[in-house]
Design brief:
The complex is a heterodimer of chains A (10) and B (214). With 10 residues, chain A is largely without helices or strands. Helix content of chain A is 0%, strand content 0%. Chain A has no helix or strand. Chain A is elongated. With 214 residues, chain B is an all-alpha fold. Chain B is 70% helix and 0% strand. Chain B contains 9 helices and no strands. Chain B is globular. The chains are: A little secondary structure (10), B mainly alpha (214). The interface between A and B is medium-sized, with 9 and 22 residues.
């Protein structure tokens, strides 16, 4: 329900 | 990458270096909360588990290694090397009040119910409150060495700069991550009291040491 996303931040 | 996030990462790196230098040069971790440093080590460990599975960039991987290494080096200095100078009596914040709610919240509110994602979410929630034992210790001892206040200023600035980065990314890329944003705002708000005292320190009489009212 919250979008999946690759974490590109530290 | 944008200038705000880069400035944030540099501020974060600066904070960690200031802390390591303070402990190493003064050969003492007086005034430093070991509990906060444990929380930070847990935070980076839980967040950077994707170090080997999810390559973003050389910069990203390098910074992750530096932050992990520095976090554990700081723990070593506090709990092993300069253990005798660790101020147990003032580092008394009940960290279970931080760990338990953040674990529960990360299981309830996350982007994806997978182990790595829940650990990432836990690290985001934990980081937002990890400084509380340190701020509590400073308020209990009633003062912080100036170098410790520089450390806190740099550390508080890092996530404040990340908030600007998230505003920029929303307008420039349409990217936003509500979990990181809400936790980042909470984290930055916790420093407000300290920021005010740090910035007005110059104008307050005999403010040689940073004094934070309880």
């Amino acid at each position: 329900w919250l979008p999946k996303r690759k974490h590109d931040e530290l | 990458m944008n200038v705000f996030r880069l400035a944030g990462d540099i501020s974060h790196l600066l904070a960690i270096i200031i802390l390591l230098l303070k402990i190493w040069t003064s050969r003492s971790c007086a005034g430093i909360s070991g509990k906060s440093q444990v929380m930070f080590a847990i935070t980076y460990t839980a967040r950077y588990l994707d170090l080997f599975t999810n390559f973003i960039s050389l910069y990203n991987s390098t910074m992750k290694i530096i932050f992990l290494g520095a976090a554990y080096a700081t723990l070593y200095l506090i709990y092993v090397r300069f253990k005798a100078t660790y101020d147990h009596n003032h580092d008394t914040f009940r960290v279970e009040f931080l760990l338990i709610p953040t674990v529960i919240l990360s299981v309830l509110i996350n982007h994806d119910f997978s182990p790595l994602e829940i650990l990432w979410t836990f690290s985001i929630y934990l980081e937002s409150v990890a400084i509380l034992p340190q701020l509590f210790m400073v308020s209990k001892t009633g003062e912080a060495e100036s170098i410790t206040s520089h450390y806190l200023f740099a550390l508080g600035s890092y996530r404040a700069l990340y908030i600007i980065n998230w505003v920029y990314r929303y307008y420039a890329e349409g990217f936003y991550d509500l979990i990181a944003i809400v936790a980042g705002v909470v984290q930055t708000v916790l420093y407000c009291d300290f920021f005010y005292l740090y910035i007005t320190k110059g104008s307050r009489a005999n403010a040689t040491e940073m004094s934070i009212e309880a």
